[in-house]
Amino acid sequence: FNEFTYYGELANDTSLKNTKLNNDEIYLGLSSQEASRIGSFFGVELGDNPSYTLTRFFISNSVMLHLDLSARSFAYTLENLFLVKAVEILDTSRIIHTDPMFNEYFVETNMTFISHANQGQTSLDPWNVFKAYTVLVSYSDKQRFLSDISFSLKYKNLSLELIKEEESPSYFKDDVNCARLKILKDQIGGVKKADVSHLLSPYETYVENLVYSDGFYYFSEDGLTSGFLHPVYVSNKKEKLNEIADYNYEASFDLQGFQGSSIIPPDGVIAGDISSLEENSLIFQVNKADDIYLAGGKAQNYSEVCITSSLANELFTSFSQAVNKTLYITCLSEIEYKQDGYKNVFKDGEFKIAGVVESKDNALVHDSLFLSSIGEEMFDFGSEDKAVDKCIVNFKSGYEIQNIVNNFNSEYFDYSFTLPLQEVEADLNEMVSYIATFLYFFAFFTSLIAMSLLSVTGIMFIDEDESKIAVWTSLGYRIKDLKKYYAVLISLLSSSGSFAALISLVIVWKMFSFQLTNILGQEVAVFAPLMYVSVVLFALLFTFLSIGLANRKLNKIAGFKNKQ
């Protein structure tokens, strides 16, 4: 009775009339064998049309279906009679009704049970039962329907899940070409895609792209760290993925988020796991306007996917051979506990490779809803894994996004909005200031050493040239001319050293900027003009001091000669 068949599901495959039935009336579906036994019991010759014959007999004799229920554990009894209005020969026995809410009336009114809509709620009261509504959607329209629901403000507090065969096996006995979706109240919360779409709609022209972080794929708040929370494995050979599932079916422990660390993928398989220590593990990248397609083009639906050139070269002999080939994927979707230990449950899928995007990362490339789609379609993730905990929006450059954040904070009190890269920038500026301060002191002390060495070098030149100086002065050279000569010499030494120091600083800062750009994923220009000015000023200061010391030495030599 609870898993009755709604008349509308039978469509044109029935001779039953679409007559509104009362709650104490039913259509009765019988198998051919059961119809034959009932006909024999009543002494009715069924003939060529058993449905018609039994229907006439049941109606003329007011045959009723008697239901007797009891539950000794809580002293429950129920007796119900239902008038059979028609009989239909089907593959299995079933109750058929024209009211899609027939079982709701039966459970809540006839059985006097109390229903609730909180899935997973446990109660010691046996009179409380969980109730979920079901909607039937054609497979061809299911993805669009789910997308429309998730972006609807009206239905944002609902959660839709595919009904699994183990939950309601009787549903899957029918050859109905549609998906059954369970409608639940959202109990987890998180960021609603409908809210994201609504609040970003006035700023669509400024949005580069956005990504969602959920229980399947994680993004840090700054978007710089990401990875699969459920380990996934991809290959161009399905048998390679079957190896992983076969060899790792049993597990000694439930390591939860680190379960993938115990799995060693064979050659020809690329793994994606945020807890992995492997270099260049598989990640996800959202489509960007400046993506460079080396082969093929953008994926048009969720049966297709784009991969990066790095991943293509890992799995194929060259990226050009990857387009239109099949990419197989498997996911460690859950860990079950059985009596003899833990079991790793792997779910599989496959995609057609639509294009190859230039990138040094091993990544799958698609739109922002791709992962949530395959998480539900391929891997049967539930509400907890589908719940979005944050959304990261990348704005185009040249727009003051602080104004947008201020508007969001003043209008949407259910969420918090931050500019994480501003915080990163503040930390970065602080770090740069520390490095700059260190370099200032380093430049100062090295300049002191350089001044000492330069002064000593200048004096050594003069000491070595003392006999030459005597000759030069006897030939008519003035001390003033010699001072100019040594001043030029010291200036050349100082200039060459300063130039080398400036070049070294430029190289250091360029390397520093390059590393920050790689870490942050966007260009970071680090320029500290004060550093270069300081080097020049130190060089000038110490050059003048060295020239002064050299002049003093020349004056002493000149004074000694004059006394002689």
TrEMBL record:
<dbReference type="InterPro" id="IPR003838">
    <property type="entry name" value="ABC3_permease_C"/>
</dbReference>
<dbReference type="Pfam" id="PF02687">
    <property type="entry name" value="FtsX"/>
</dbReference>
<keyword id="KW-1003">Cell membrane</keyword>
<feature type="transmembrane region" description="Helical">
    <location>
        <begin position="485"/>
        <end position="509"/>
    </location>
</feature>
<keyword id="KW-0812">Transmembrane</keyword>
<feature type="transmembrane region" description="Helical">
    <location>
        <begin position="529"/>
        <end position="550"/>
    </location>
</feature>
<feature type="domain" description="ABC3 transporter permease C-terminal">
    <location>
        <begin position="441"/>
        <end position="556"/>
    </location>
</feature>
<protein>
    <recommendedName>
        <fullName>ABC3 transporter permease C-terminal domain-containing protein</fullName>
    </recommendedName>
</protein>
<keyword id="KW-1133">Transmembrane helix</keyword>
<dbReference type="GO" id="GO:0005886">
    <property type="term" value="C:plasma membrane"/>
</dbReference>
<feature type="transmembrane region" description="Helical">
    <location>
        <begin position="438"/>
        <end position="462"/>
    </location>
</feature>
<keyword id="KW-0472">Membrane</keyword>
